[in-house]
Amino acid sequence: MAVVLDFEKPIVEIQNKINELKKMSAESGIDMSKQITTFEEQALNYKKELYSNLKPSQKIQIARHQERPKFLDYVDLMCTDFIEFHGDREGTDDRAIIGGIAKLDGKSVMIVGIQKGKSTKENLEYNFGMPQPQGYRKALRLFKHANKFNIPIITLIDTPGAYPGIKAEETGQGAAIAMNLKEMSKLSVPVISIITGEGCSGGALGLAVANKVMMLEHAYYTVISPEGCASILWRDASKYADAAEALKITSVDLLKLNIIDEEIKEPVGGAHNNYEQMAKSIKTSLIKALNELNKYSPAELKSQRYDKFRNMGVFLEV
Question: pTM of the entire structure?
Answer without folding.
Answer: 0.91
